[in-house]
Amino acid sequence: MPVHTPTYEEAYTLLHKYNQNPRLLEHAYSVEAAMQYFARKLGENEEKWRIIGLVHDLDSEMFQKQHCIKTGEILRSAGWPEEYIHAIQSHGWGTWCDVRPELYLEKVLYTIDKVTWFVSYVTVKQPSKKLADIDIDIVMSRWNDKSFAPGRNREFMVKGAAMLGVDIRELFDDVIAAMRPAAEKVGL
User: Fold this and answer.
1) Are 27 and 117 in contact (CB under 8 A)?
2) Contact between residue 28 and residue 36 where contact means Cβ atoms under 8 Å apart
3) Which pTM does this prediction carry?
4) 8-182 fold
5) Nearest residue to 78 (alpha-carbon basis) of 7, 132, 129, 28
6) Domain-by-domain residue ranges, the chain?
7) Among residues 27, 52, 46, which one has the least CA distance to residue 109?
């Protein structure tokens, strides 16, 4: 199949072909919203960043043990460019594969994959379970409470913030702002 620039509709269809779990879909939408936000903030191609964010966990439901690797196979067979595939696979660097984030887009994806999860988890642990009721002080108080979400490795988020050259507080603040317009779509 010849290589082509994927469309949002194509990415959305692939996501739903390989994922049915509502939580995985909500996470995909969270990362999509954050990637679009950062692309806009940086003056980058919003559609490209959004698509990459949307399908970043394409294989995680059906192929858990081959996460990030199987996505490459699926996207190559669909004619996606290697640039997109490398970006998507790089979010699993250090856990699922050895594809290192090199481009700024890849570093953003690597980082916000974990940060969107953390913001979502903070939100569902609040009485209202609404993203509209979350602010940076709430997120930072949970961040500083090492007994909160102990299974989630804060080291990856710190490493990602360092790769981006931003303070963790600024990163969380941006991700909260990015996710708010998509709150209903992401179940928050």
Assistant:
1) yes
2) no
3) 0.94
4) Hypothetical protein af1432 (1.10.3210)
5) 7
6) 8-182
7) 52
Q: Are 71 and 55 in contact (CB under 8 A)?
A: yes
Tokens of 98: 């050895």
Close Cβ partners of 187 (under 8 Å, ≥ 6 residues apart): 22, 23, 26
Find the Cα–Cα–Cα–Cα dihedral 16, 20, 22, 28, rounded to 10°. Answer: -40
pLDDT digits (tens, 9 = 90+) for 68-112: 889 999 999 999 999 999 999 999 888 888 889 999 999 999 999
Place of tokens 């919003």: 46
